[in-house]
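Why do we care about 3D structure at all? Because function follows from shape, and shape follows, mostly, from sequence. That is the central idea of this module. The next example makes it concrete: a single protein chain, its amino acid sequence, and then its structure expressed as tokens.
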Amino acid sequence: MLTNAPKGTKDMLPAEAYKWHYMEEKFAEICRRYGFEEVRTPTFEHTELFQRGVGDTTDIVKKEMYTFKDMGNRSITLRPEGTSPVVRAFCEHKVYADPQPTKVYYNIPCFRYEKPQSGRLREFHQFGVETFGTSNMMADAEVIAIGYDFINEVGITDVELQINSVGCPECRGKHREALKKFLEPKYDELCPTCQERFHTNPMRILDCKSPIDQELVKDAPMMLDYLCDDCREAFEELKKNLDSFGIKYVVNPKIVRGLDYYTKTAFEFITTKIGAQGTVCGGGRYDGLIEEVGGPSTPGVGWGMGKERILMTSEACGFEIPKPSGTEVFIACMGDEAQQFALKLMHDLRLAGVAVQMDVAGRNFKNQFKYANRCGAARTVIIGESELESGKLQVKDMESGEQTEVAIDDIIKELTK
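And the structure:
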């Protein structure tokens, strides 16, 4: 067991690391264009934050959280999602007192105890964006546009943006009554999970993945038919803003998202490239969450996106992430004096911004060249006693095999061209 990672976790080895770096840098760059700044929160929080923020009726809180008592007998939870911790930080540091809106992004590990499957792990990594402090639907369209741009720039195709409105507490109550009345005669046919949702959050039944339940709710009353004037106007404004951005979308009245804090806007980016788990990004508006966590009444909107799933989908679409240049120079040397000279040269080259390696395993000259090839070095500097005596070093182009002589005093200038 010591040589096996825990179930639902995955190592990132050097052969894959450059792909993660590419995604992270691309995401940060797009957020910068939109004026979003990075926020970082602790890996664990007080359990109550997620119970109040995410909601007691959600699968995350009821079944999936990694919760434990610390040495002070406090209930602590590894964060299962990114929004609630960012909201907590917004409140704790009184960021709401600054001119609004506040626009932030994050890149974090999250933890959920669920059945591992392709693109879904128990320790996973999430990109996310949040805008606090405005109820204007321009903010909703803008965060959607960030996701749209990122998805396109990492080569993901066959993506459909689906949007919905889940209303506000005022109009949701009327829909809830109508939905329960519709579902009551079908209650015994619902799956056990949806039977429970019937009493706690019946709108979640609309989003159940069970084919039987999907058939049962086929003609169910939808939230869009019960929107109050404010929610209806907001939804129309969102669609108008998306049209202005040039972002195509379809209205899917069954999108409700899995967290209790959503109000008004709910959306998902859906792809056919990764089978049943086709959602690559999802989010919406949560105008009551900041107040629920303990801050002043402040609107918010944002989304989360699984990094593993984005990477898997990008590769499934045939997008090739460019490999970064590796070792630029390898120094092959023989003899103690040559080695000491090589160490200083290597250090000077690194300070000059050159990626340099030399053998640290005591290989002979022949095997040092083999190792230089393994490192992918573009050029190899050859240093032996004769080179030091003559004051001229041999530089070999590893692709063409051509060797040139370079004076010791000019070697750094030559290798930093």
